[in-house]
Amino acid sequence: MFNKHAFIAALAALAACIAAPAQAAEAYPERPIRFVVPFTAGGITDNVARTVGARAAELLGQPIIVENRAGAGGNIGTEYAANSKPDGYVIFLGTQGTQVTNPLLYTSAPSSADRLQAVQGLTAIPNIVVVNAERPYDTLAKVVDYARANPGKLNNSSAGAGTGTHLAAELFQSVVDVKFSHIPFKGSAPSITALIGGQVDLSFDYPVSTEAYVKAGKIRAVAVTGEARLGSLPDVPTLAELGYPQATSVSWMGVFVPAGTPDAVTARLRQAFAAAIAEPQVAAKLVEFGGVPLQKSGADFTAFVQDEAVKWGKVVKAAGVKLD
C-alpha cells in the first residue's frame, strides 16, 4: 500500500542529502586549510606559498597552514595532494616541474593532470642567460656565433638535470640550433660559483641566483627568457627581442586542488588567491622572489598548463633526459 507520509519523508531526506554538499561549499572554509608545498622550507616555492597564502587566508577568514612534503623532486608532495579528500581543505602548490616535466622525467611519477585541478596561477619566473665575465662573448649574438662555430665547446651549467635551469637551455638550443655541453650541479649556488670561477661558460638561471652577481660585475647577463624585461635589469633584452620568441620560457607556480573539489569551493579559492597576488604588497614580494604575478584562473590556467605540457614534452624527448 502506498504510504504518502513515508514517501514525503523519503523525498525530504533525499533533498537534504543533495543540499548538504552545496550548503557545505557555501560555508567554506569553516576550518584551517593545509597548503601542501612539495619542496623544503626556505626555498622559492615555500616563500611564494607563505607570502601569498598569508594574504589569501585573511581574505578567506581561515588560517592557511603551509605543509612541506619534500622528496623525489616534488613527487611525494604531489602524490599526497592528488590522493587527498577533495573538499578544499588540502590545496597544493603546483609547479612547472610537478605538473608538467616530472611525469616526463621520472618513469615512476604518474601524471597528476587528471587528479589535480588547476585553480589559480601565482607567479612566473624567467631565467637569465648569464655568461662568465671574462669570456669574449658579451652579447647573446656572440654566444650563438661562437656556439655555431664550435659545437659542444661551450659548457652550460645548471642546478641539476631536469631542472628549469637545464630545460630552459635545452629549449634554447633546439630553437637556435646550437649545441652546448651540459654540466649539472646540485643546486644553483654551486652552478653559479662555477660560472664565476670560469669552470663553465654560461648558465640559464633564476634572478634570485644571478642578479646580485650581475650587478657586481662577476657575471654578465645577455638575455632574459621571459616575455618582458626585468625591472631590476632593464637593459637586458628578452629572447623575443633578440629574435628568438620560440625560446621564451618561465618557471611557474599555482594553486591546485584534488579533482572533484566542488565548484563553489574552487571559486572561493580562486577569488582569494587572484585578489592576493593583485595586491601591490604581495606583487612586490613576488618580484623580489624573481617573478611576476601569474594572473591566470580556472579554464585559462588549465589551458596554460596543457600548453606547457606539450611544449616541454617536446624538449624533454629531444634532449633524452630521464631521472630514473
From TrEMBL:
<dbReference type="InterPro" id="IPR042100">
    <property type="entry name" value="Bug_dom1"/>
</dbReference>
<dbReference type="Pfam" id="PF03401">
    <property type="entry name" value="TctC"/>
</dbReference>
<feature type="signal peptide">
    <location>
        <begin position="1"/>
        <end position="24"/>
    </location>
</feature>
<comment type="similarity">
    <text>Belongs to the UPF0065 (bug) family.</text>
</comment>
<keyword id="KW-0732">Signal</keyword>
<protein>
    <submittedName>
        <fullName>ABC transporter substrate-binding protein</fullName>
    </submittedName>
</protein>
<dbReference type="InterPro" id="IPR005064">
    <property type="entry name" value="BUG"/>
</dbReference>
